[in-house]
Amino acid sequence: MFLLKINITLFTIIGILVVSGCTSKTETPEPTTGKLTLHFDHEVDQAPIVFDTMRYTNAAGNKYLVNEIQYFISDVTLHHTDGRKILLDAWEDIHYVDTDLPDTHDYLFKDEIEPGDYARLSFTFGINEVKNQTLMFVNPPESFMFWPDNLGGGYHYMKLNGKWLNPSNQVVPFDFHLGIGQIYYSYPDSITSFVQNYFTVELPQSAFSITANQTTNIELVMQVENWFQSPNLYDHNTWGGDIMQNQEAMILGVQNGWDVFKVKNIDAK
Asked: What per-residue confidence (pLDDT) applies to 3?
């Protein structure tokens, strides 16, 4: 009888433990942060760009076409409505965009972002001098953006390649390339100093919110024609087809870059 009572008690305890183990649940906490994605599109005169077709005319009157656009953005910064600046660089602080590679058109940040209201965002067009180091990228396509060491090293900020119709009615290629500039004592050999041509893009019309457990998607458009028109009238007939060693020409593009990007759409899901 005594053994029977012990066995009954033991089975009762085991049964309670089994039932307890089956009914207990490990609850997954709700996410308290959100995500952000930037999507890049490219337009000319407010319409999606059409490549490899001589259909555009810039503000200087040059008829031109575009073959491809490749560029880096970095140091994306969120400007909170309370005045804080949040630099999104915990995982990936340099992003490459290539019009020939659709996979590069989306920049999903791995950072967990605090929910709240943000007044705008900004980023660096190009790569600053601390980060822009030769051989930083060893694999294509980024490695193909190298900037020659004798011209300053590191990587292009942008390659905008195309063709224009010159005054002799000839179709001539142009390489509208931005990167580190040079100051020459005697062109093209005697470089006395280098110029860091990266610049900050401010997007004032980019107020958005981050919501917990949602991804906010911001669609950015590069307005390609703006590289050639404001505040400087850029004329391919004046500057020719290759400006990598022409700081006077590159600075025109840098100064025109202030309004090249606009926010087209913001949504969350």
From this structure: 40
